């Protein structure tokens, strides 16, 4: 058995806060008055650190007391016999303290030191630049680079032919990484989260992604598989780059059926929202 102060100290070392009633509930029996010893506040320390220190604190061994002989008068306990002090966690648990085992020289020689451990090579951030704009806040248009005058006219003509508002000069540039010299742990995941944060920061809530050409880095970030962008979690449509379309009439003719179907989907979604 341990007394109440010892129990409270043991619980406190485990990080458990004891609850003590301060007020008498209606209809409850009266609690006998107790004098709780006031202890000086200990310096702040993590519960795990306190418990570890208590587990490793040596315990004064208990002296053996010979059994009383029948008929012999009771003898007082010999002086100097001590009970385990408050906070001796191992003694309370009934575990005998063990002395640390010395390691053989061979094992010590085989243990690698912190200085001999190989240094972890820092990872490089994924680098890309992209031009974005939101068509009425619903569809996200993405270009791998800012269009020149010829490509901008082509984009306007494609939008008029398909019935898409592609002529708005509202492209915004996003470069990743935002700052140089920052530590990188997961280049691809961090680049995706940065792009998503940029889109959300503009107040856009895109329902579909339109992409005209992609750089290799941007292709990793968007991860377009079929008609779905795994990187942004959006339905996706991907066409040739504006640079390739500008000088290839055959590519324009091949793109027209897909672009026409895209315009139909735009009008149907607009009518459904209305």
Task: Describe the protein in words.
This protein has helices at 4-13, 47-56, 89-92, 105-110, 149-162, 187-201, 216-222, 242-246, 249-273; strands at 128-135, 139-143, 172-176, 208-212, 224-225, 228-229, 234-239. With 274 residues, the chain is α/β, with parallel strands linked by helices. The protein has a domain at 128-273. It has a 7-stranded mixed β-sheet. A hairpin with a 3-residue loop joins strand 1 (128-135) and strand 2 (139-143). The radius of gyration is 37 Å and the shape is elongated. Mean pLDDT is 77; it is low at 76-84.
* Percent in strands: 5-15%
Query: How do the helices and strands follow one another from N- to C-terminus?
Result: HHHHEEHEHEHEEEHH
Largest sheet: 7 strands, mixed
- What is the overall number of helices? 9
Question: C-alpha Rg, in Å?
Answer: 37 Å
Instruction: Report the uncertain regions.
Output: 76-84
- Helix/strand/pairing category: alpha/beta
Percentage of residues in helical conformation: 25-40%
Number of strands: 7
- N- to C-terminal separation? 76 Å
Summarize model confidence as the mean pLDDT: 77
Please state the overall shape, judged from the principal axes of the Cα atoms. elongated
User: What topology, given as strand order, has the largest sheet?
Assistant: 3-1-2-4-7-6-5
């Amino acid at each position: 058995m341990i007394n109440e102060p010892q129990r409270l100290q043991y619980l406190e070392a485990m990080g458990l806060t004891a609850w003590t009633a301060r007020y008498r509930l209606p209809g409850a029996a009266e609690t006998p008055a107790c004098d709780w010893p006031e202890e000086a506040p200990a310096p702040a320390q993590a519960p795990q650190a306190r418990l570890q220190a208590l587990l490793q604190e040596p315990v004064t061994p208990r002296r053996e007391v010979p059994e009383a002989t029948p008929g012999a008068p009771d003898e007082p306990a010999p002086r100097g016999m001590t009970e385990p002090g408050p906070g001796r966690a191992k003694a309370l648990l009934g575990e005998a303290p063990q002395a640390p085992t010395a390691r053989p020289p061979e094992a010590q020689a085989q243990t690698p030191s912190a200085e001999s451990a190989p240094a972890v090579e820092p990872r490089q951030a994924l680098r890309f630049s992209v031009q974005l704009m939101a068509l009425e806040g619903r569809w996200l248009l993405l270009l791998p680079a800012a269009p020149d005058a010829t490509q901008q006219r082509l984009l306007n003509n494609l939008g008029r032919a398909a019935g898409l508002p592609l002529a708005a000069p509202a492209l915004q540039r996003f470069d990743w990484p935002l700052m140089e010299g920052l530590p990188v742990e997961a280049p691809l995941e961090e680049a995706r989260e940065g792009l998503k944060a940029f889109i959300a920061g503009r107040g856009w809530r895109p329902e579909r992604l339109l992409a005209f050409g992609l750089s290799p880095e941007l292709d990793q970030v968007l991860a377009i598989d079929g008609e779905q962008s795994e990187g942004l979690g959006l339905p996706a449509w991907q066409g040739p780059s504006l640079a390739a379309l500008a000088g290839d009439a055959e590519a324009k003719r091949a793109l027209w059926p897909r672009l026409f179907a895209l315009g139909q989907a735009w009008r149907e979604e607009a009518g459904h929202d209305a």
